[in-house]
TrEMBL record:
Protein name from the UniProt record: Amino acid permease
Keywords, comma-separated and alphabetical: Membrane, Transmembrane, Transmembrane helix, Transport
Organism: Variovorax robiniae
Phylogenetic placement of the source organism: Bacteria, Pseudomonadati, Pseudomonadota, Betaproteobacteria, Burkholderiales
Transmembrane segments: 29-51, 63-88, 94-115, 122-142, 162-183, 195-214, 234-253, 274-298, 318-340, 374-392, 398-415, 427-447, 453-470
Annotated membrane topology: Multi-pass membrane protein
Length: 488
């Protein structure tokens, strides 16, 4: 009985039916808004923060190849997400898909892992948002206290002086502000997201359009700097490490899948939103990386605002202000989408009984999972204020890649176990495409540092303790099994 509980699957029909009752999230998102959610999540930290760091420390101008490699990996995984999101149009992302394939325990593990992807991802981007805010305000002569702009510890400022930081206050405040917005309603949040995505895309295209005329092609030589003797620092291993580091900026299409239950026509809109946003954003990433490394020698790009540094080379102060405003808008949409996605995953897990019921409580007026949103907002704000960005970024990357592997496996499994179920969108070339997705993710995971793997193991151990201490005793699936056993 115990073992069967851990491996018991929820059928696709039951999962879909769970999203069609009266106690459901309102269907208010169309294909355009879903695509904008994806673009909102993808375009942000990768362009405005991580491009410079990855180029300076790992790949040099070869960061362009890093983005292409990460884009290929996402393409294979994105096709798998498109099939599963259309087949199983409910909230929960890869947690839900795993429940339909590997059973309850595996679903809990991946659901807990998704906290690294969404909640820690929001905290990571909030730290980058704080850096751009400080840079923008500085152009107007407004200087926030450095001790309240960084996580605790000794920080070296641009003038060479050092201070003891206490807490990253702007990072925490932006998370709490967006949490309040999300509580007020999905439609309102999506409308703000659409506007900010438009502003962000204009800024990105402006940087590419103005910057390309000032590119110094000598800065692209050597295209892949020689390896320093350490794996992951330049050379081809640096290109691979660069892909692993920037990979978490591609999780937008994953966040799109959490909107399936609120899509007006999920069978049509979800594949469009997932694949459309991925194609748009990969092209923009490569173009921005090319222009940035052509404007500024890669050795000088290890700064919190690399795009602003590139604009300074162009010599147009008004464009510098525009870029920084755009960066803030871009990072804001990423935080918004990640906080949104995490609350919907907790909502789904709580409906299955694996988390306390208050996580699935809907606001009586706005219809949003407000208790889940508040809890996540508080935790993310604390983490963003206290933890350095490089630690957060690596944890997000490994958590994301782990989740993607199970999604690819879910497509292969469901093609056999649910072979007669109608699929509005089908991944071509199964099992080849899902297997390639798994291989790409494993390769990128292998390039991450060993301490990142250790943090993943510790995180999963905490999750297992929660499951065996609470989740298994309150599982809705377990109650159904006990009820069936009692009737026999």
């Amino acid at each position: 009985m115990a073992n069967s509980q851990y491996t018991a699957r929820k059928s696709v029909a039951d999962i879909v039916a769970s999203g069609e009752g009266g106690h459901t999230l309102p269907k208010s998102l169309g294909a355009f808004s879903i695509t904008a959610i994806g673009v909102g999540a993808i375009i942000g930290a990768g362009i405005f923060v991580l491009t410079g760091t990855a180029a300076a420390q790992y790949a040099g101008p070869g960061i362009m190849l890093s983005f292409i490699l990460a884009g290929f990996a996402c393409a294979f995984v994105g096709l798998c997400y498109a099939e599963l999101a259309a087949l199983i149009p409910v909230s929960g992302s890869s947690y839900t898909y795993t429940y339909a394939t590997l059973g309850e325990l595996a679903a809990w593990i991946i659901g807990w892992d998704l906290v690294l992807e969404y909640a820690m991802g929001a905290a990571t981007v909030a730290v980058g948002w704080s850096g751009y805010l400080g840079s923008l305000l500085g152009q107007f002569g407004i200087h926030l206290p450095p001790a309240l702009m960084h996580s605790p510890g000794t920080v070296t400022l641009k003038d060479g002086s050092t201070i003891t930081a206490l807490f990253n206050l702007p990072a925490a405040l932006i998370i709490m502000a967006l949490t309040v917005l999300l509580i007020r309603g999905t439609k309102e949040s999506a409308s703000l997201n659409n506007v900010m995505v438009a502003v962000k895309l204009i800024v990105v295209v402006a940087f590419i359009g103005f910057g390309i005329a000032y590119v110094n092609q000598d800065n692209w030589t050597p295209f892949i700097p020689a390896n320093t003797g350490e794996f992951g620092h330049f050379g081809w291993s640096g290109v691979l490490r660069g892909s692993s580091v920037v990979f978490f900026a591609f999780i937008g299409f994953d966040a799109v899948s959490t909107a399936a239950q609120e899509a007006k026509n999920p069978q049509r809109d979800m594949p469009i939103g997932i694949l459309g946003s991925l194609i748009i954003c990969t092209a923009l990433y490569v173009a921005v990386a090319a222009v940035l490394t052509g404007l500024v020698p890669y050795t000088k790009l290890n700064v919190p605002d690399p795009i602003a540094l590139g604009v300074d080379v162009i010599g147009k102060p008004w464009l510098s202000l525009l870029i920084k405003f755009g960066a803030l808008a871009g990072l804001t949409t990423v935080i918004l989408v990640l906080l949104y996605g995490q609350s919907r995953i907790f909502y789904t897990i709580a409906n299955d009984g694996l988390l306390p019921k208050f996580f699935s409580t809907l606001h009586p007026v706005h219809g949003t999972p407000h208790m889940s949103q508040i809890f996540i907002g508080i935790i993310c704000a604390i983490v963003a204020g206290l933890v350095p960005i490089h630690i957060l970024g690596e944890m997000v990357s490994i958590g994301t890649l782990f989740a993607f592997i199970l999604v690819c496996g879910a497509v292969i499994y469901l093609r056999k176990s649910e072979k007669d179920t109608y699929r509005p969108f089908r991944v071509p070339g199964v099992p080849i495409i899902p297997v390639l997705g798994i291989i790409f993710c494993l390769v990128l995971m292998s390039a991450l540092p060993g301490d990142t793997w250790l943090r993943l193991v510790v995180w999963l151990a905490i999750g297992l303790a929660i499951y065996f201490g609470y989740g298994q005793h309150h599982s809705v699936q377990r109650q159904k099994q006990l009820a069936k056993a009692g009737k026999r």
